[in-house]
Design goal:
Helices cover 73% and strands 0% of the residues. By secondary structure, the chain is an all-alpha fold.
């Protein structure tokens, strides 16, 4: 017989539980109370399983309960809704004996999470009485789905506001003036309010303002530091982000996961992996984040990813999608298929289904991709685009066009994919017709058509498209600039370059590459001098400059550039840079220096390097290495034979 004190201890543990394995143990310990019809115990266990991401276990408890109250129904509804089981949530909602404000609010939030704003709005307007919870849920629904103006309108219409109302609209604001105005208008400001302002500034990328607010906060907590970690990460300031993380007295799960996201998005796979392995606690979200890193990293271990995936307490759609992408990139479609088939309620999981369509298409299984596509209950633009891209990448343009024409709405991305595909195939008339028949006429889609004409050397048509763009962006100017440089019209390229409102690094590199094509080293160096006053040169800049030197055989200038880029611009030379430098030395007659560079550079020489040396002088090392690197290539043998004919 359990004492009252023991019951309270168990119930308190259940309220705090967020771990599925602990939840199972607590469930076993309290089983006798459930069997006795203890309504409060049943409700708390349902809540616990919902919180731990196991709505199936929650449903078993709810269904077996002999005594249910309004809280019981809402707890089960929340368990379904918070774990993306929208169909079950809708069915349960329709079966409920009565609804209260909490029931309606749960459904508003559920629809909002799935991007179904219209349904969320219908639920809100169907309510006879709307409490603060419902108002706040609808404001959050608008704000989360990108309708901040409507969220603000609803906020202004509220009959009364709580601190949650203020912090909800504040945390989702992106405009600096609005963030500042809302915060200063708040009737009271606690740590949550300060953190909401800081979080809004961080998410909107206002780094300096976020730093100012942080330095003036009356107190901090882990969330304050986490917002700053996120903000530094967005600006690529990894060292600052890591310093703030290290300054945390207790590295909680949220802060660790945010830094993990920052490292993954910055391409720091090994650092992310080390952080993940050092985390005291991990959850479904952190596992999904690191699995996405494994999926995007070429040299990642499938076995390690599988170990993480199969030791997870539960699998959400994002973790499954990461594994699908990993298997897809490695050509293991059977494994990808198994992951998808292991999902419960496959029809509800739009993201994994789209990932599997991509996996099939990338590996040439178009019929399987189309079968899955046709069987989906719902599709979004990403799904349609995945199917269309699959056909494009497998050179089935007619099927791609058919999918495009069947799409309920032609977004920018599918239009760009299709226009670019027809352009690559040289079918510019069809590309232009598809473009003309589409309602998506933005600068981005115009740029796709412009690039298509340029790649097919139809410069008059490209210029006509350029002239018809009402609001040109940087990409429009860059596309027209590339059109002229790629087709050898350097004077026209210069005119475009000089009239560009903003000259970014890409446009400067384009001009440097154009000068390198004709060996105009003096013009390239003049451009570099002007360029460094506003832009920092990159690897492409050095490649273009060294190529210019190769045309003229100006070894001294090439040497200076090679050293200068390392010390003045902190650019570590790549294999391509070493090959360019090697080529300059060979063409300038510095054969011994060239050969020394091959042996001393931190990369293995490839067959082209040895053939270049062999073309200049027939040496034992050059012959042996040129043949051993690529024995089937006839070029080294021809070069050797020619040298003997000459001698």
């Amino acid at each position: 017989m359990v004492t009252l004190d023991c019951r309270e201890v168990l119930l308190d543990a259940i309220k705090k539980c967020t771990n599925l394995s602990t939840a199972s143990k607590l469930h076993n310990e309290i089983e006798h109370l459930l069997a006795a019809g203890d309504c409060l115990a049943c409700n708390l266990v349902v809540q616990m399983y919902g919180r731990c991401g196991c709505p199936e276990a929650a449903w078993q408890i709810f269904r077996g309960s002999t005594s249910r109250n309004r809280f019981s129904w809402n707890a089960m509804l929340s368990a379904f809704a918070s774990n993306s089981h929208l169909d079950q949530a809708k069915q349960l909602f329709d079966r409920m004996p009565e609804w209260d404000v909490a029931s309606w609010s749960i459904m508003i939030t559920a629809f909002s999470r799935h991007g179904l704003l219209l349904q969320a709005k219908e639920v809100f307007h169907s309510m006879r009485e709307r409490g603060l919870v419902a108002w706040n849920a609808m404001i959050l629904a608008y704000a989360t789905n990108g309708h901040l103006d409507k969220a603000m309108q609803l906020f202004e219409l509220m009959p009364e506001r709580s601190l949650i109302s203020w912090t909800t609209i504040l945390s989702k604001s992106t405009n600096l003036f609005q963030i500042t105005t809302l915060f200063s208008s708040m009737p009271e400001r606690d740590l949550v309010a300060w953190n909401s302002q800081l979080s809004a500034l961080a998410q909107a990328g206002h780094l300096q303002e976020a730093k100012h607010i942080f330095s003036n906060m009356p107190e901090f907590d882990a969330l304050s530091f986490t917002s700053m970690i996120q903000c530094f990460g967005q600006h690529g300031l990894l060292e600052d982000a890591k310093c703030f993380f290290l300054a945390l007295p207790h590295k909680d799960l949220v802060a660790s996961t945010v830094l993990l996201v920052v490292l993954v998005e910055s391409g720091c796979f090994h650092e992310a992996k080390n952080l993940f392995e050092s985390m005291e606690y991990i959850d479904v979200v952190s596992c999904a984040v690191i699995l996405s890193a494994y999926a995007d990293h070429d040299d990642s271990s499938i076995a390690e990813a599988q170990q993480i995936f199969y030791t997870m307490q539960r699998h959400n759609a994002f973790a499954c999608t990461a594994m699908l992408r990993l298997y897809s990139r490695r050509g293991r479609t059977h494994d990808a298929e198994a992951i998808y088939l292991g999902l419960t309620d496959q029809g509800e999981h739009l993201v994994p289904a789209t990932a599997l369509i991509t996996a099939y298409a990338c590996n040439g299984h178009l019929e399987k991709a189309k079968k899955l596509f046709d069987g989906m209950k719902e599709r979004n633009e990403v799904t349609w685009t995945a199917m269309l891209t699959g056909y494009v990448n497998n050179h089935r343009l007619e099927d791609a066009l058919y999918i495009f024409e069947k799409m309920p709405g032609h977004g920018e991305i599918p239009l760009i994919v299709l226009v670019s595909a027809y352009a690559r195939s040289g079918h510019m008339l069809l590309a232009k017709r598809i473009f003309d028949n589409s309602n998506e006429k933005s600068a981005i889609t115009f740029n796709a058509l412009l690039s298509g004409f340029a790649s097919n050397s139809q410069l008059l048509e490209a210029k006509s498209v350029f002239d018809s763009i009402q609001e040109r962006n940087q990409s429009s100017w860059s596309a027209m600039l590339s059109a002229y440089t790629q087709n050898g019209h350097l004077d026209m390229a210069n005119r475009i370059f000089l009239t560009m409102p903003d000259k970014d690094l890409i446009s400067w590199d384009t001009m440097l590459a154009a000068y390198s094509q004709i060996g105009a080293i003096s013009r390239a160096l003049d451009a570099l001098q002007t360029m460094v006053t506003t832009n920092t040169p990159d690897e492409a800049s050095l490649t273009a400059l060294l190529t210019s030197c190769a045309h003229k055989g100006t070894a001294a200038i090439a040497r200076d550039l090679f050293v200068s880029f390392q010390f003045d611009h902190s650019i570590k030379p790549s294999k391509q840079h070493y090959s360019c430098m090697f080529g300059v030395l060979v063409r300038s007659g510095y054969i011994q220096d060239a050969e020394n560079l091959l042996w001393e550079m931190p990369y293995y020489p490839d067959s082209m390097d040895w053939k270049c040396l062999l073309g200049a002088v027939v040496s034992g090392d050059a012959m042996k290495n040129a043949i051993s690197v690529e024995p089937s290539d006839s070029a080294p043998y021809v070069l050797i034979a020619n040298s003997h004919i000459v001698t």
